[in-house]
Amino acid sequence: MRRLQLLILLFSLGLTLPLGLLAARTWSGLAQEEQAELAFFAETLFDRMETELADLVQTEEARDIDEYSHKTSQGLSPLARPESYPDYVVGYLQNNPDGSFQTPLIRSDQDMIALAERLEGINQIVNGNRAQPAPVERPKTAPPVVAPPRKQQPLESRYLTSRPLSPKEEFEARARKVREVPTSQAYNLAPEMEDKLERELNKMAQAEEVAEPPKPSAQIETMLDAAPRPQAPRLQAPEFRSPPPPLLLPENALPEDSATTARSDTEASQGQSATPDKSLPQQNALSQNGVRVELDPMQALDVGEGQFFLFRRVVLNGRIYRQGLVLDLHKLLNHLQTRHFVEQPLARFTMLRLEALEGERILALSEQGDTQLALHGSDPDLTRTRRLLRPFSFIQAELLCGGVPPSPGRASLRYTLLALGGVLLVGLFAIHQSARVIVDHSERRANFVSSVTHELKTPLTNIRMYVEMLEQGMAPTPERKRQYLAVVGSESARLSRLIDNVLEFSRLERKKRSLNMREGNLSDVLEEVDRVMAEKLHQEGFELVVEKEDIPLFRYDCEVLVGLVLNLLENSVKFGANAPLKRITLRAKAEGGRVELSVSDTGPGIAARDLKRIFDDFSRGEDEMTRTTKGTGIGLALVRKFTEAMGGTVRARNNQGPGCTVSMRFPLMG
Questions:
Q1: Which of 191, 491, 603, 654 is most buried by its number of CB atoms within 10 A?
Q2: How far apart, in whole angstroms, are the C-alpha atoms of residue 445 and residue 469?
Q3: At 36, which helix (H) or strand (E)?
Q4: Over 80: is that where the pLDDT of 253 sits?
Q5: What is the pLDDT of residues 309-327, one digit of tens each?
Q6: In whole angstroms, how far apart are CA 299 and each of 89, 266, 325, 392?
Q7: Quick one: how far is CA 181 from the chain centroid?
Q8: Residues 6 or more apart from 530 whose CB is under 8 A from it?
Q9: What SS3 state is found at 628?
């Protein structure tokens, strides 16, 4: 049995170690999947914010160049009414080459005047920033900007080696563009150029007249008609046009209306080199469709007090105009939070931090979601950070998660592991118990064979001894002969019952024993037991007390039931031989629709730990009395098997005083 237990232990270890490793790897894989899933949605959140900002940039870049005056070639500017601005837009302005500014605002009430003054102050900051850098040479074609690859999660790296540029990032890699605009827009942008443009148109018309004499005047007339000239003032109300301030230029700086214009540090920091462009006059030449102007991508400039000037550079005939809008950073960050994060389920367990940075300095900050992460200062389980694309690269988005939501597969894995562990434990326990029962049964069967051999040998020895004594005339008196013959008869009956028990047990195990069920009230059983056991009980000094009540008829096998009672009486005699009081009570009574036949003695009783197993096959108690008393261990097993075969039950219990009681209960006829 010890060897079997060792084998079961080794089998358990060999099975649980791989399963444990598999479970650990699966658990770790689920954790990676959870983090990768959250990281994916964090990147999606960042992409949505970038998409909105990209749409804003594309909208501003697509504006006509004369929309920054209150009247355009198409009528009133769409930027003339501040109530149509988003809440994060302070206002729109144009910074002219001479340092003056204009705005599309047209109303003259106090609010508009205050806003115009605020924009004029911002224009002064823009003028001060324009004069700072020294010129450096800029290449004619700006190389495309490739976004650096972002840090990948382990799960992502199995499928994607790098993240390509998305359509939302295309504006980051764009270089300067050249656009054909109607001459009317050019007049609105720069009224002082009207005479110059007319001269160029006349030169173009004369050149075409030489090339194609039949159609010179018609083409020129058509081009001039297609470019109506608005009457002065063309830009905005006089009170919103500021006079040109003096420019404080360094000694090595060049004026902006020259062909070698110096670009600001801010522009250079956005990825565009501050260089003079010697090709500007050629690029701004007049074409047949209008005027050719050069437009730079949008740039951002910190103008203080939590505001940024988002602008584009318009180069017309070598002169630079800066057109754009002033953004309130706090409102912009709050707008992004509210629109893309606050109402999302993600906000319940994560925190989104948006920061406007200038170097290490925080210009504006907005935090929404699970702000307890910041208050407690604990390390989050997952952090995803992204610098938004230009011109909003001064904004950093950071998503923090203190507890990654568990994957649905984690609960399934947990329940599967619990079920598998339970099945494994139950299976191993069942195997151990089955093996233990088999080994125990084998040991008891071996002990049974030894006991039966001993039990058979003892009566045979007694019979042979008394027969030899009778043969040799060692019984001098008839009384002694009768005594010897009685011993021979008793031992023969004992031997016969022992053999019958073994045969009955064998037939029951093979299920070949049939019962002869007849109706009765136990009178025949009690009489036969008294007849068979009277002499034996008298010789051993036991008193048999029979108590019988009125019992209705029921079905039982009389021969079998007599054998069962005899087995119980022999056990009582065997184990109570040394008891001070030798009395056995045989009681029969009807109670609760059942007939109870019990045998009660005054012997030593049964150990409490053996009460539940004394009816098992080949089972005997393990106390000192049992070990010193002869027996085969099948007597009580036969009692249980035959009682159950007749539809009854059997149980054993210790008495309040000395001894124990074994009761057989049989159902009455229905």
A1: 603
A2: 36
A3: helix 2-61
A4: no
A5: 999 998 887 888 999 999 9
A6: 16, 8, 11, 8
A7: 58
A8: 544, 546
A9: coil
CB 106 within 8 A of CB 245: no
Task: Output 554 or 457, whichever has higher pLDDT.
Answer: 554
Burial of 357: CB neighbours in 10 Å, binned 0-12, 13-18, 19+: middle
Q: What is the pLDDT of residues 15-55, one digit of tens each?
A: 788 888 888 888 888 888 888 888 888 889 999 999 999 99
Residue for token digits 């108690």? 621
Burial 22-40 (b: 16+ CB within 10 A, else e): ebeeeeeebeebbbbebbe
- Count of C-beta atoms within a 10 Å radius of residue 322: 26
194 pLDDT band (50/70/90 cuts)?
low
pTM: 0.54
Per residue in 362-399, pLDDT tens? Answer: 889 998 887 776 555 567 778 889 999 888 989 999 99
Strand 660-667's sheet: what is its strand order? 543-548, 583-591, 594-600, 660-667, 649-654
Q: What per-residue confidence (pLDDT) applies to 49?
A: 92
Both tokens of 306, joined, read: 């939590």
DSSP H stretches of helix in 472-594: 478-509, 523-540, 558-575
Q: Parallel, antiparallel, or unpaired for β 299-304 and 382-387? A: unpaired
How far, in Å, CA of 333 to CA of 48, rounded? 14
CA nearest to 370, candidates 383, 344, 398, 351: 351
Q: Residue 245 gets which letter from DSSP?
A: P
**Position 30: which residue type?**
L
- What confidence score (pLDDT) does residue 563 get? 86
Q: Give the span between the Cα atoms of 313 and 301, in whole angstroms.
A: 12
* CA separation for the pair 89, 82 (Å, rounded): 9
Q: Average of pLDDT values for 412-436?
A: 83
Residues in CB range of 266: below 8 A, 6 or more apart: 129, 299, 300, 301, 302
Nearest to 204 by CA among 189, 178, 222: 222
Give the model's pLDDT for residue 233: 38
